[in-house]
């Protein structure tokens, strides 16, 4: 039972580490194409990370991506 609990905690710690890495990449101001394609991974990262501050950062990143997509759609429609 103890090894199962340890394994579960290790898996959660790794998932949180990867989620923070994904956020770091998005915060590094990548190109528009990278940002747009990171929306799904940011959404999943938001489900893994439980801190309110971390979730607020992810929400802002997703909102910025949505704004970028809207700008691209308006530009393409012209």
Task: Explain what the structure shows.
By secondary structure, this protein is mainly α. The protein is 87% helix and 0% strand. The protein contains four helices and no strands. The chain has helices spanning 2-27, 32-37, 39-48, 52-77. Helix 1 (2-27) crosses helix 3 (39-48) and helix 3 packs antiparallel against helix 4. It is elongated, with a radius of gyration of 16 Å.
H/E topology pattern: HHHH
- Structural class of the helix and strand makeup? mainly alpha
Strand content: under 5%
Unreliable runs = none
Radius of gyration, in Å, reads 16 Å
Q: Approximately how much helix is present in the residues?
A: over 70%
Shape: elongated
Compute the average pLDDT. 89
DSSP helix count?
A: 4
Distance between the termini: 62 Å
| Biggest sheet statistics | none
Give the tally of β-strands.
Answer: 0
List the helices and strands and how they pair.
Elements lengths: L1 H26 L4 H6 L1 H10 L3 H26 L1
In brief, what are we looking at here?
This protein is mainly alpha-helical and 78 residues long.
Label this structure with key terms.
mainly alpha, 4 helices
């Amino acid at each position: 039972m103890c090894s199962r609990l340890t394994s579960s905690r290790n898996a959660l710690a790794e998932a949180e580490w990867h989620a923070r890495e994904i956020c770091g990449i998005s915060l590094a101001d990548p190109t528009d194409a990278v940002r747009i394609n990171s929306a799904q991974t940011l959404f999943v990262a938001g489900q893994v990370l439980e801190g309110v501050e971390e979730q607020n950062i992810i929400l802002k990143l997703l909102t910025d991506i949505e704004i970028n997509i809207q700008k691209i759609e308006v530009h393409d429609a012209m």
